Amino acid sequence: MAGRGGAARPNGPAAGNKICQFKLVLLGESAVGKSSLVLRFVKGQFHEYQESTIGAAFLTQTVCLDDTTVKFEIWDTAGQERYHSLAPMYYRGAQAAIVVYDITNTDTFARAKNWVKELQRQASPNIVIALAGNKADLASKRAVEFQPLPHFLSILFLASVGNQEAQAYADDNSLLFMETSAKTAMNVNEIFMAIAKKLPKNEPQNAAGAPGGTRGVNLQESNPASRSQCCSN
């Protein structure tokens, strides 16, 4: 797992960097912190009381790798069950997805597994899926089932057991996995950077209309002006 705190984004791309654009969708139960993660990543902000997303929200942010600038088109979807039928419209054509759960709520982890199954069945075959165990700042309230231990061992293992369970699930399903905290910025930039590194940069695809359109476009020639704006946020 990456260290605590948001990693500083590079100042800008080196001359000649490729600029690629990818569609990324966030999925998960209501109130797990999807919007807070996006707000922290895009604007570096955290609001203790975040209004529930209605339908979906759209934001963009860039990250800079050694030879490539990755622009994320981020669709933050609503977690309420009544919006579930809209989800395929947002993850269709997405190159990446972050499935979010709340480490203090086992039901949201079970729901996250269902989202992963749905993506594996219906999303793009090569989609990069990351699993984010959010609210890591509330690790003392972690909701995890484990065998009773002596008190002193319980203290030692409390913070690691839930992480091991999720990590094992992520490994079995070839997912990226990090525990995150939108409140403290723990691993927020890191999870997006990890996704950016896994995305294929040499297979640009044709752009289509949002939200269902496929994105994976090399913008180096079509919009060279955007290069100067990289990582300015």
Automatic annotation (TrEMBL):
Location of the region described as Disordered in the Swiss-Prot/TrEMBL record: 202-233
PROSITE patterns, alphabetized: RAB (PS51419), RAS (PS51421), RHO (PS51420)
A GO molecular-function descriptor: GDP binding
Sections of the chain in a coiled coil: none
Gene Ontology CC terms, in alphabetical order: early endosome membrane; endocytic vesicle; lipid droplet; melanosome; plasma membrane
Catalytic reaction(s) noted: GTP + H2O = GDP + phosphate + H(+)
PANTHER family: PTHR47978
Enzyme Commission number(s) from the entry: 3.6.5.2
Bilayer topology annotation: Lipid-anchor
Similarity field: Belongs to the small GTPase superfamily. Rab family.
Main enzyme class: hydrolase
GO BP terms, alphabetized: endocytosis; endosomal transport; endosome organization; plasma membrane to endosome transport; protein transport; regulation of endocytosis
Keyword list, A-Z: Endosome, GTP-binding, Hydrolase, Lipoprotein, Nucleotide-binding, Prenylation, Protein transport, Transport
UniProt biased composition (Polar residues): 217-233
Pfam family, one: Ras
Identification of the protein by name: small monomeric GTPase
Organism for this UniProt entry: Ictidomys tridecemlineatus
Subcellular locations according to the entry: Cell membrane; Early endosome membrane; Melanosome
SUPFAM superfamilies to which the protein is assigned, alphabetical: P-loop containing nucleoside triphosphate hydrolases
